[in-house]
Specification:
alpha/beta, 6-stranded mixed beta sheet
Length: about 250
C-alpha cells in the first residue's frame, strides 16, 4: 500500500491534491507542533496584480508549542472577508457559479456555528470538499487517531507501519531532513520516494499565468477538467539517490 503524510493545509495548491490523489491512504498530520504563518493558516489566490495571501487569524500569543489540532481561530467572522476576496477575484471565472456556493457552505458550517473553531477542522473540511469536487477517492486518516509516537521520520515510520503501508511518498520539500533519515523507514520495510510535480498551465484570469495559487484557481477556471489537468503535472517519483544527485549538482553549481 502506498501512503503519504502531510500537515493539513488551508486552501492547498494543486500539488498537495496531486499527492493525495496518487496514494492509497493519506494521513493528515494534525498532532504535531503548529508554526505561525505556515500553510496551515494561509494560502494564495490569483488577483489582477498577482498572488494575494488569505490568512486565517489564530490564537497564538502565549500558546507556543500547541499542536495543529489545538489551534483556535481568533476571529470566527474571518470567512466573510475571505469569501468576499474570492468572489471579487473569481466571479468572472467560467466555473465560479458552479462551485462558489459549495465552498461558502463548507467554510461557514465549519466556522459559523462553533464557539471554539479550530484551524484543523476548517482545513480538513475544505480538503474533503476539494477531494469530492475533483473526484479523488483516497482514504483520509488523522494521525491523532492512530496513537503513534516519535519525532520526524520515526513518527512517519510508525504511522506507515501501523496502517500496513510499504511505500512512503514524501513531499519534495521534506527531502532536506528525510534523506538523512531514510534508514528509519527502510528498517521497517518501507520504501521511500519523493513527489515529482511540474506545475501545469491552464486557463487563468488576469494574465500572465501565475503558478502555485490555491486549488480554487484551477477549479473555478477549468471545472470538470480540473482533475485531468492536475494529474498532467505528475511525473515519476524521485528515488532518494536522484534527490541526492540533484542536491549535489546544485551545490557544485554555486
Amino acid at each position: 500500500m502506498k501512503i503519504a503524510i502531510s500537515q493539513p493545509t488551508y486552501l492547498p495548491w494543486i500539488g498537495y491534491l496531486d499527492l493525495i490523489d496518487q496514494v492509497d491512504t493519506f494521513v493528515l498530520l494534525d498532532n504535531v507542533q503548529f508554526e505561525k504563518q505556515s500553510w496551515q493558516q494561509r494560502n494564495r489566490i490569483k488577483t489582477p496584480t498577482g498572488l494575494q495571501w488569505l490568512t486565517v487569524p489564530v490564537l497564538f500569543r502565549g500558546r507556543f508549542g500547541q499542536l495543529i489540532n489545538e489551534v483556535e481561530i481568533r476571529d470566527i467572522e474571518f470567512w466573510r472577508n475571505h469569501l468576499r476576496a474570492i468572489e471579487l477575484n473569481y466571479r468572472r471565472a467560467p466555473f465560479f457559479d458552479d462551485y462558489f456556493e459549495g465552498l461558502s457552505s463548507r467554510m461557514m458550517t465549519r466556522i459559523k456555528y462553533s464557539s471554539a473553531a479550530l484551524i484543523a477542522d476548517l482545513d480538513i473540511g475544505l480538503i474533503e470538499w476539494f477531494m469530492d469536487v475533483l473526484g479523488i477517492q483516497t482514504r483520509l486518516l488523522l494521525s491523532s487517531l492512530l496513537n503513534q509516537r516519535g519525532r520526524r521520520t520515526e513518527l512517519l515510520a510508525n504511522i506507515c507501519d501501523s496502517v500496513g503501508a510499504r511505500q512512503y511518498v514524501s513531499p519534495f520539500g521534506s527531502a532536506g531532513y528525510l534523506l538523512q533519515e531514510t534508514d528509519v523507514l527502510l528498517d521497517k520495510g518501507i520504501d521511500v520516494v519523493f513527489q515529482h510535480y511540474e506545475h501545469p498551465q491552464y486557463r487563468q484570469l488576469f494574465p500572465p499565468f501565475c503558478p502555485y495559487a490555491s486549488i480554487l484557481d484551477l477549479i473555478f477556471n477549468e471545472g470538470e477538467q480540473s482533475l485531468q489537468i492536475l494529474r498532467s503535472g505528475r511525473r515519476t517519483c524521485f528515488l532518494p539517490q536522484e534527490i541526492s544527485d540533484l542536491v549535489s549538482a546544485k551545490v557544485e553549481a554555486r
